[in-house]
């Protein structure tokens, strides 16, 4: 009876949380559809006639399309390289007898402990020296470095959850360590790998600090481009909202397409950790 009495309160709390969470996105979409003369009004959809002028403007004026394409290329390339290298490193730390393995693992994690601003000057000098300043390749290298520790940490936990006996059975059948990894371990940990890929993608997609100091025109990403809508005399709220809506939709769609794998990935380790 007490549990049934708590259900309405739980549902009410969830609805309140949902409204509070979605309100900024609702404001963003609403503002992007407003005409220029009413962009500062507090009216929501249904109280004004929506127009697509702001969307038309960002795709026909300026360099928004180029910046968006840079973000797509850099983010997906970073995810592919980071997950490929990080999963191998995570598997090695989880399964192999490496001398001072925990010390090595802690050293890898230290790359995520310092604030990004601590790497700003070293990265700038390095990219200038190797002639990769304002290049997609240089930005991919920076983002792989910044996200690799997270990937190793997550994938090690996922591989630890897979019983070693399954791989030992594969060895009996003639599989090598590498063959067992690709045929047995990877398929069993696909949920965790996709969860890691989504997290790395979101962190790379939304990153602003390194993009602002290591790019100029060629490899500039969309977060840098959004600052161009802040003028000295006015802020172009309509175009800013339209561009933000477009770039927000991409990771949302990505997460929706991989949601079933993400649920499996987040649930890995739940049984052992609850003991």
Automatic annotation (TrEMBL):
> For this UniProt entry, what's an example GO CC term?
plasma membrane
Q: How does it sit in the bilayer?
A: Multi-pass membrane protein
Q: Which UniProt keywords apply?
A: Cell membrane, Membrane, Transmembrane, Transmembrane helix, Transport
InterPro entries on file:
BP-dep_ABC_trans_perm, MetI-like, MetI-like_sf
The chain positions of domain ABC transmembrane type-1 read 68-258
Task: Tell me the Gene Ontology biological-process terms attached to this UniProt entry.
Answer: transmembrane transport
- Regions crossing the membrane: 12-30, 68-92, 104-125, 137-159, 180-205, 237-257
Where is this chain's protein located in or outside the cell? Cell membrane
UniProt keyword annotation of Membrane present:
yes
Task: Identify the main location.
Answer: membrane
Which PANTHER family does the annotation name? ABC TRANSPORTER PERMEASE PROTEIN, MALTOSE TRANSPORT SYSTEM PERMEASE-RELATED
What family is this protein classified in?
Belongs to the binding-protein-dependent transport system permease family.
Q: What is this protein called?
A: Carbohydrate ABC transporter permease
Q: Which organism is it from?
A: Cohnella candidum
